[in-house]
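Internal ticket - ligand job 418, EPZ:
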Amino acid sequence: MEKYIINGGNRLYGKVAIQTAKNSVLPILAAAVLTDEEVCIKNVPHITDVKNMVKILSCLGCKAVFQGENLIINSSSADCFEIPSALAHELRSSVFLLGSVISRFKSAKIAYPGGCDIGLRPVDLHLTGLKRLGVDITESNGYILCKCDKLSGNEIMLDCPSVGATENIMLAAVKAEGETIIKNAAREPEIEDLQRFLNCIGARVSGAGSGTVVVEGVEKLSGGEFVPIPDRIEAGTFLVAAAMCGGEVELERVCPENLSSLLHKLRENGCKIYANGDKIILQSGKRLTSVKSIETQPYPGFPTDLQAQITALSCICKGQSIITENLFETRFKYVPELRKMGADITVINRSAFVRGVEKFKGATVIAHDLRGGAALVLAALAAEGRSEVLDISHIDRGYGAFEFKLRALGGDIVRIVV
Ligand code: EPZ
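stdout (structure tokens):
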């Protein structure tokens, strides 16, 4: 078990380079199973979810090796269609492999995927979509078993714009016979990035980001090199850190247009923000003012993956806020931990009701999931006094070199192995 020890109160100054997007890299790694030629994914973050996805690819018989920051994958020797349950339980994105494994082997077996404990996280939309492409699916003893003679293009209407279901169906459709149209598809930038990667290796995908994705099936795919987009959630986490601690931070290698809903809220809080090309500068001085209401929505609405971070910020603003989580059922597990730090916050159903206090007080708190854990680190950095954040393995799933980047900005944070 590892923990962070944080002495709060330092303002943050300096530059931070943003990693490539975890939620882009993971479906792209699944997509690499579709081709027999070598693919090179550049600047891949060294985070636990990526390491576990690489382990799964190796279990399928693929060769996947890091060369510095680049990940080289060759799936020509892939010979297994069963995703190991221990690894499937580790991460949600294991389910994305269903589409590509079925496409390659016409069979697939996977245990129900794990990942952050933030809600029920069903996969019904994934399975309904795959059935529309001709896949027979049975579920028994916690496993999902898939078989098909061939994959045939079809029209699929998603009940909700699920990111994972959109990606899974795209992967299964790439080499299906004929055209697949995915309606009410997710619009996240990571969906567009997956489309760019697939087209870079010879697929014919269009419409990502528009809500309707069209996939023309092709016979064969090639290899290629690809640089995924920057991680908008890591970027947003650092912007909120600077807003809460005060100071001036410059993010490098970001896409400001992918963060507009957060930038809008932070400006309303009173931050000065300058966005130019692939850089964002945030200045925060005096105590910030509360934003009355924040509702998480599918992209381009306010991202659920920044809900915990903006709630932590709201706790030390002047005024009151209501933060509503519309996507996941139990994404407020970090709230009792913030209360230990002096937050005045109450959760009723899907909303957190916040009354701003002057400052957090240092305390010992526990991370329960990836983004909630990150929010506790931000609260500790802004707090008065010493904090400990326990069970930080949750944070390691999505943030590479997190404490190094925060220390470089002036944060007093160290990792301790207990
Ligand atoms: C992806 O999860 C991300 N994970 C999540 O990021 C992110 O919070 C989420 O999209 C929403 O943006 C990855 O990309 C690896 P969904 P996913 O399917 O695909 C319901 C992080 O912190 N739903 O868009 O699992 C579901 O219950 C992680 O980086 C169904 O009902 O999210 C939820 O209410 C956490 N049936 C809503 O859709 C289904 O078959 C959105 O889920 C699938 C989803």
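Auto-summary: DSSP finds 14 helices and 24 strands in the chain. The longest helix spans residues 232-245.
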